[in-house]
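Researcher: Predict the fold of Vacuolar ATPase assembly protein VMA22.
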Amino acid sequence: MAEVLSPETTPPASKIPESKETLTRSLDDLLERYLHLLDQHQKLQQDLNSSVNDSLPSFSALEPTASDFTPALKIDDLNTGTLPKEDAGDTKPTFEEADKASGTSIDPLKWFGILVPPALRASQSSFKSAVVDVVPALASLSNQMGEIEIEVRRARKRLRKMN
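Model: Structure tokens for Vacuolar ATPase assembly protein VMA22 follow.
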């Protein structure tokens, strides 16, 4: 979906010439690369927002009906006035553990059987594209921006020492 361009690598601080003009030029280059990464970061955030917003109207189309809910109490429990008790040591398996044990798919849409609403499929594909494509790219860009911020601070510190 979104392509992340990696910034040019900068030479280590020990290899950068120590004249004021070259330090100023290298600081300008660092800031220019940071602004380029910031622009990409903002575009990816817009992509993420649109992916999430595209999936939310699909959820609103999925109005639950009365048959979608199972009662928490059985009629016998209501007649006797007792509530079901849960054993404190009884742990319930997670969805992934249950899927592995039963040999079924991890895809939650398959839990609904064959007749999965199209709105639910659209929501799932929007969220998948956001999680698989956009979020890792955002994380990568944030990491690169952090590294450049550190380099900018170091360059500014060297410039202050020269003045």
